Amino acid sequence: MKRYLKSLLLLAIMLLPDFATAEQKKLATDYAAIVNPFIGTHRAKRISLMGTTFSGVSLPWGMVQFTRPAFDEPLGFVVNQLSGTGGWHMGHFPTYPLKGILNESPKRMFNGTIKISEEQASAGYYAANVQGDTRAELSATLRTGIARYTYAADEKRATIIIGCGIASSPIKIAAMTITGKNSCEGYAEGGMFCSHPAPYKIYYAAEFDCEAIESGIWKHDELHRNATFAEGENSGVYFTFDVEKGRTIHYKFAISYVSVENAKENLRAENPSWNFDAVKSAAAMAWNKELSKIEIEGATQDEQIQFYTHLYHTMLNPNVFSDVNGEYMGADFVKHKSDRTHYTNFSLWDTYRTQIQLYAVLWPDITSDIVQSLTDFAVQSGGYPRWVIANVETGTMNGDCAIPFIASAYAFGAKDFDTKKALELMKANAGIPNTKSQGVECRPGLSDYLEKGYSRGSRMLEYCIGDFALSQYAESITGNRNEGEQFRRTSANWRNIYNPETKWLCMRNSKGEWDKQDKGWTESTYTNCFWLLPHDIPALIDTIGEELAMTRLDTLFTKISGGGFKALWWSSCNEPGMHIPWIYNYLGRPDKVSDLLERVFTELYTNHPNGIPGNDDMGTLSAWYVLAASGVYPFVPGVGAMMLNTPRYSKITWHAPKGDIVFSKSSDARYTTDCKVNGKRHDSTWLDWSLVQNGGTIEHKTADTPKSWGTKQLPPSLRK
What is the pTM of this model? Predict the structure, then answer.
C-alpha cells in the first residue's frame, strides 16, 4: 500500500480519542507535556541573537504550523512558519478571534494593537487570551489546524477575522472567497525569504462549526459588509457570530501548495469532525511517539524540559509537502504525484552539520524520503539547491551543502533513495561550472575553485567540506576509491588560502593577492573559519604546529557568548564554529572539551525564551544540544563516525530501529577516565559508528580529575 495511504489510515485512527488515550497510557512519560515551546522565542534587536522559534502547534514534520509568527507578532495566528530561521517568511492567513462586531477595517490585522496574554503551550497544544478574556486554543494534524475560541459570558457578538493579502513579508497577489455562512477559501503568493523572492503559492480552505449572522471583506482602510471576495495587499474576510447561546466557536482549516481542492481534501481526510480534544490528544500522541525515541535518566526537571524541547525543535522542519492524495508542486512548478511522502523546507547550510545525522540514526525511513525529496527537487530544477522554501530555491547562504547533507544521511544509515542519481547530481554540482538550480548557480566561483584552486573565503571552505563528503559518498556507492579521488584532492584546496606569513587562512583577490584578513567570512570571522575544515584538522594542526593550535583554541574560547556573527571569539550561535570544541580531541585534550561543554550547557542554554544562543536554524542548534548532551558529535560530514564526550546525564538511550544505543556515565563527575564500547575498552575519542549502528553501549567511567583517556589514541586523519 502506498505510504501516504498508510499515513492517512494512521491519522484516522489517531483522531479516535479512546485509542489515543489508551496509547498514551503505555508511555511512562508524557514527553509532549514536558516540552516548553517558548524556549527560543525571544526576539532580540539583532537576528543573530534571536532564537526565532515559534510557540504554536505543529506535528512532527507537519505541513501546518498554527502559531504566532516568529518575527511579525502583530499578525495573529498564522498557518505556516519555519522554526529558528534568520529572515522574515511565510505567516499566511493570519486570524484573530475578536469581541463584538467589526466596525472598522483591520488593515494589517490592527497593526499590533490586539493583545495576546496568558500564553501556555506544550507539544501539539497552545492556548492564550485574546483581548483580555477570549480564550484561544490551537492544535493541528499534519496538514490542518483547529482552534477552539471561548468567549466571556457577557459577550453577545463575536467576530473572527482572517487575513488574505497579509503575511510576514509583504504580498500583493492573494484572493479569498466567502463560500457560505461558515466557510471560505483562497490562495496567496509566498512573498519573500531573507530578501529573496519566494514565488510559491499556498492554498487554503476553512470552516466554522456554526453559521455567521454577518460576513464581509476588507481591503486597506475600507470595510465592505456582505461582500464575498477579497483580493490584493492588506485584505481579508470576517465572520460575525451570535454567541449569546453558545460561547464556543470552532474554526478549522487545511492548506495545500497545489490547489484549493487539495486543501479541501486534506481537511476532509485528516480533520472531518469538530472534536478539538481528539485532535489535541492525537497531536500529543504523535509527539510522544517521536520524542520517546530518546530516553534520559539522571536529569533534573529543568534539564528534562530543555532536552525534550530541543529534540522537539529538531522535528519541526523539514516539512511534509505532499497532500493526502500524494500530489505536490515540483521545483519545475508542475504538479507531481509520489507514492512516498514528499518533504520540503531545506536549510542545508545549517542542518548538514547536526540535524541530518540525528535523523538518519533515529528515523532512517523518513530521512530517506527527505533525501529523495531533495533529489527530486534537483532533477526538476537542474541541480541541488542550497536553501529551499516550499518549491523555491532561494539561493540563500553559501557552499554546496546538499552534498554533505546527503552524504551524512547515507553514512549514518538512511539509504532508501536513488543513490546513483544522487551521485550523478552531486558530481554535476561539484564538477560542472554554471550548473544551476532554478536558475541559481549551484557553486558560484566554481571555475576559479577548479582552475586556480581557490574562491571566496568561507565559501570555498564549504566547497572543500562538500568535496570530501562527496569523495566518501562516491566510494561507498561504487565501491571504488578512484571514484572520489578528484574530490578528495580538491578538498585540500584550503591550502591555497593559507598565508604562511600570518599563519591564518585569508581570501585572495582576483589577481591572487592576499586580501584583507577580515574579508570573505560569511556570518563568521577568520578566527572561527580557520577551523572550518572538519575533514582535514590533522593537516591543519601539522601546518601551524600543536602549540599554536592550542593557543588559538584557548584564545578563541576566552568568551563563548555575545558579539553575534562578527565576534573574534567563539561564535557559539552560528554554524561555522559548531564543531570547534571537539578539535581539542585532536590535541589529546578531551578534558578541555568537557570543560567547554559544561560552560555551554550552563551559560548558553536555559529553560527561558532566550534559552538558545542564536537563531535555531530549523533545529540545528537544538540538534547540537541533543547530540552533545548524549555524548557524541558527528564531526566530519559524510563520514559515519562520532566524536565522544562525557554525556550530560547518567544514561541516555537512543531507540534506533536496528537496536538501542545506550550512552552512560558512572557518576556526575565531568571527565571521562575510561570508556567501553560494547563492553570492550575504547581508548579513543573517535567512534566508528559501525560499532553501534545495530545497537550497542558506550559506557563512560568518570571522575573529578582527568586522566589519560583520549590523550594518546587521537582521532584519525581521513583525507589521505
Answer: 0.95
